[in-house]
Write a structure and sequence with these properties.
single chain, alpha+beta, Alpha-Beta Plaits, 5-stranded antiparallel β-sheet, 3-stranded antiparallel β-sheet, 12 helices, 62% helix, 11% strand
């Protein structure tokens, strides 16, 4: 036991001495560490400040603009010195004229080649789904870029031939920054347009597979999806272009978020329009081409956007209804339609005979090649519906294809009238009975009539 206590005391003494030494070392190292941390912090702050000042996308790291311009000007300078163009004015004039003709010829050749490629690939691009205006834009952009390179090369050669300091101009930071920004924006446009077209093609293909043969469903949703994709790509392009021009987009995004929140808080009706429209379109309540009644307005749907629906009635009046104003959607042409008949006959007519005539007319119409494709089911007769003031009302309906109920219904009404006339079925019309009253014995007073001939009437006049 004593031995263990001695060992414990020795261990404590040694550990205390080691602790003292280690504290001195820790203090020294802490001072060194704090100094190094401060220097590292300063360097990190400088690096972060440098990174904030620099644009996000730096094309010069990918394409060395300085090296390219230096090699180009060195090649031209060596060629001019070897052929002694510096002191010979005649050679300079001849070279300038030759370069001018070569440049114009190259621009003309570029136009012819681009036009030939355009005509060759026009049909194939149309099959892919690229519209005429779009591939006109892309080919025009390509031709413009090639012509710009040709003109730039032509001007630089002529300028150096006449002793202008073109190499110094091309090596300035202004030209380098301008060339870098221009090349970057062109690449952004090119790659963004390519990705946009691929995305639109994939979305359209997906809609065609998902929508099947429902053309109206595709026509309703596809323009909305394309508009959303256009907005997304446009915003991304603007942000990348501003970043390349040296503008820090992070404050812009933060400011846009605050402004968007303020606008969203103040424009609650617009947000309600968008959300309500999204639900209506997602649930397939309406499609382009449907005849609907919304917000007490009835018409055919011509256009649907993310916040409103556009209708045109029978008289040609166009109504624009925001989705937030829609409480109930009455779709008159969803999947199929009905035309409702309320046929009035006189009280003296046999209703069973009238129903038989209605069914005969129905069979006759359904055998007609002009209407049999529009009629989906035979005429459904409900029977006597009500006893009106001067007629017995028989109710029936016919099931038709969407949008065909009015044309079919008008044909039924025409043939019903013709069949009733042939079978002497009376169709009541408004009339009035004059009652002169009776006394207590049941006798009515005589009606006094006065007749005047035409001569007397003429004489009175």
């Amino acid at each position: 036991m004593i031995f263990f206590r001695i060992l414990l005391i020795l261990f404590i003494v040694i550990s205390q001495s080691n602790i003292a030494l280690s504290q001195e070392q820790i203090t020294t190292s802490a001072l060194q560490t704090s100094e190094s941390n401060e220097s590292q912090k300063k360097s990190d702050d400088n690096q972060s400040q440098k990174n904030e000042d620099e644009p996000i996308l730096e094309l010069s790291e990918v394409i060395p603009i300085d090296d390219l311009t230096h090699k180009w000007t060195s090649f031209i300078d060596n060629y001019l010195q070897r052929n002694n163009y510096e002191s010979n004015i005649i050679k300079k004039l001849i070279l300038s004229i030759i370069i001018l003709f070569i440049g114009l010829g190259a621009c003309l050749l570029n136009k012819l080649l681009i036009s030939k490629v355009f005509k060759t690939t026009k049909d194939k691009l149309s099959e892919v789904g690229l519209s005429t205006s779009k591939y006109n834009f892309y080919f025009s952009l390509l031709r413009w870029v090639i012509n710009t390179i040709i003109i730039f090369s032509m001007i630089s050669v002529i300028g150096m031939a006449w002793g202008l300091p073109v190499d110094e101009w091309l090596s300035t930071p202004f030209f380098t920054s301008l060339a870098t920004s221009s090349a970057t924006i062109f690449i952004i446009i090119f790659i963004g347009s390519l990705l946009l077209e691929i995305t639109l093609a994939l979305v359209e293909s997906a809609f065609l597979k998902w929508g099947g043969h429902s053309t109206s469903r595709i026509n309703t949703l596809l323009p909305i999806a394309k508009n959303v994709i256009y907005i997304i790509f446009f915003v991304l392009f603007i942000l990348m272009a501003l970043s390349e021009l040296g503008i820090n987009v992070m404050p812009l995004l933060a400011g846009a978020g605050v402004v968007g929140f303020a606008i969203g808080f103040g424009a609650q009706t617009i947000i309600k329009d968008i959300l309500t429209g999204f639900i209506i379109i997602l649930e397939d309540l309406v499609q382009i081409g449907d005849i609907v009644c919304v917000a007490s307005k009835t018409g055919v749907i011509e256009k649907i956007s993310i916040r409103k629906i556009q209708l045109r009635d029978l008289g040609g009046i166009v109504y624009t209804v925001p989705f937030s104003e829609i409480d109930v959607v009455e779709n008159l042409t969803k999947d199929f339609s009905y035309y409702l008949f309320e046929i009035g006959i006189a009280y003296r007519e046999d209703t069973d005979e009238v129903v038989k005539i209605l069914k005969e007319v129905d069979e006759d119409i359904r055998s007609d090649s002009e209407f049999n494709k529009s009629i989906l089911e035979p005429l459904e007769v409900f029977g006597v519906d009500q006893f009106a003031d001067s007629a017995v009302i028989i109710k029936a309906r016919i099931k038709t294809s969407p949008l065909k109920q009015w044309a079919v219904g008008r044909e039924y009404n025409r043939r019903f009238k013709f069949a009733f006339d042939q079978n002497n079925i009376e169709i009541p019309f408004p009339h009035q009975t004059i009652y002169f009253g009776e006394d207590k014995k049941g006798h009515a007073p005589a009606m006094h009539l006065k007749h005047e001939n035409s001569d007397q009437v003429t004489s009175k006049k």
